Amino acid sequence: VCRCAPGYHGNGTYCTAVDCNTPTVKNAASVSATDGTTYDKTATVVCSPGYTQNGTQGNVRCLESGLWSDFTCAVVTCNVPLVTNAYYLSSGGTTFNTTLAVLCSNG
Questions:
Q1: 73: helix, coil or strand?
Q2: Could you say which of 23, 27, 59, 99 would form a disulfide bridge with 73 (CB–CB 3.0 to 4.6 Å)?
Q3: Is 0.70 topped by the overall pTM?
C-alpha cells in the first residue's frame, strides 16, 4: 500500500493530484488557469476596472487542501481632493464610482 504525498489523494494503489476546480474571485474581470486546476498549479487573476489586487502578483495557487490561495479584488479608495475656496455639499463615499459634490465659495 502506498501513501500519497501532500496535495495528492488515492486509494493505496495510485495517487492523483488534488483538484481545486476553476477559481472564482469576486470583482475579477478574468481568471485564467491555463496550466490546469490541480495541486500547485497557478491561475492568473485580473481585477475589474475600479478594483485592485490584494494578493500575490495577480496569481492564486491550488493548495494541498483543495482550495485556492487567498486573493481579493478590493475596490479602489480615492483621496478626498483638496479644493480651495470651496466646501463639500455631499459625499457618496471615496471609493470607485462614487461622487463628491463640491460648491465654490462666493467671491
A1: strand
A2: 27
A3: yes
